[in-house]
Amino acid sequence: MDMLRDYETAFYFYHYDHLLPKSDYPDLAEAEWNMVLSCEACNKIKHVYDPGKHAGRDEETLLDLFKQAAGPSELRPTLLGLVKSYIDEQKKQYIAKFPDQQRLLREALDHLPEST
Prior knowledge:
Elements: H1 7-10, E1 14-18, E2 35-39, H2 40-46, H3 51-54, H4 59-67, H5 71-110
Antiparallel strand pairs: 1-2
């Protein structure tokens, strides 16, 4: 299999990620609703992006909402949508750069000595 054929193949491993970054929300680091399944590429792209801040909520307000019984179920879909939109936009930029990166990697590989 050609691992450099496209961006998705090159980074095809799954991770558990925190919807709200544990660096900003340590109290939510173990909350099950705050965990999402992510491929390695999306996890790297998202990194510490905080959808809560982009939803116009400050950390204290979000923590209060999530401590209420209905908080996670009401706000999670909105936060997931923000994360998906952010990743999609970032991915477009990475994918646009990938052909040049792919060419450079192939050129470098072509110059490696043959192994016996």
